[in-house]
Amino acid sequence: MLYNVHFGINVDVAMPVEDKSKSLLPFLSRPKLLPDESEAEFQSGLQSLLSELDNPSPLAVALISQLNESLWWIKRHTVDKELLLHEAMARLLSKAGNHWDTYDNRKVSETLERYLDGRAEKDEVEWIEEILAESKLTLSDLRVRAFKDAARHIKMVDDLIHRQHQTIRHLQRSIDSIDYKSRLIKRMDLELAALESKQSVKGALTLDDKSS
Amino acid sequence: MTTNPRRSLANQSNALKSTGPRSVAGKRASSQNSRKHGLNSAPDFESSREFHALVELIAEEGFSGFACADIAAGLLNYRRVMDAYYDTYTSPEPVDEFLRDVNVKASIPIFRELLSPSGSEPQDVKEMAAFFAGMQRQERRKGGPVSRRTTDTHKLIRYQRNGIARLSRAVRHD
Nearest-CA residue of chain B relative to A11? Predict the structure, then answer.
């Protein structure tokens, strides 16, 4: 039977487990990436997680894909913490020395971003340093003030990161439980096979006794 | 961004006089204005093809029928939450740069001019300036795009917590 599972991915329920895992992969891990993010990096993270499991079942693959996504969100939110600081620094600079009307917030923000990345032109560096001098601040002072200013939002990002950690913990436990379950089933199958073979040997011996 | 502050102020002042949509289509559209992510509506996974495909795949792993349905629904529900999370993160409320940066005090003559045809009193001009100043405070408090998307995604934490708990419970219960 062939299913068209979401986004045009075909899953044939009669196919072997490994193939099903591969066909499920795009369904549950189809990355929703931001324009500047690398799909190759996302997929390599997923493959390295998958390589740690021996013969993963489709459900394990699905859960690992969610785990990889959570790790990806942690990366995004960590970058956001720095961006929040930059945003607050630009806001403070644009207001520096009661110049709210003088400095264009967007211009300050864009120039400061380039300044902090070391990509600013000479005149842009001079401009930022001029505003800093006017407001009697060093870059580290500005950073400290920005941290206080953005504290509420930084706390929110910390909550978001913490949530992803909790999600990963849940997923790890679920994967462990599937792994344990499959190992238990294999062990029971082996024990059953052993019992059956013993039984058949016993039966054969009894038949031999009777015939003799 | 509108470059003419006079026109922007006039547009925003006129918008305050609006009494809302009149046509049925307009009312239907505006009834969805407060819809944010749709995670409060009850999903119908069981009639979807994804659900049945997942149930059949999970059943081969030795789970009971009920557990398979629970796990498939949990997985689809978790995906729904994470898709909403991504959408919220990537489309925060846009910054109204004009309202954020406009000098309200310096705009009082424009308010006076806009209100003069209706024979307004100086008190009306003051009230309008105070109203704009309040809106500006709200706009500034929301911060830039990163602050906004942080605030918006933070509201989805509880959905994510419930979604992953449901999925984890379904997988480990059997």
Answer: B53
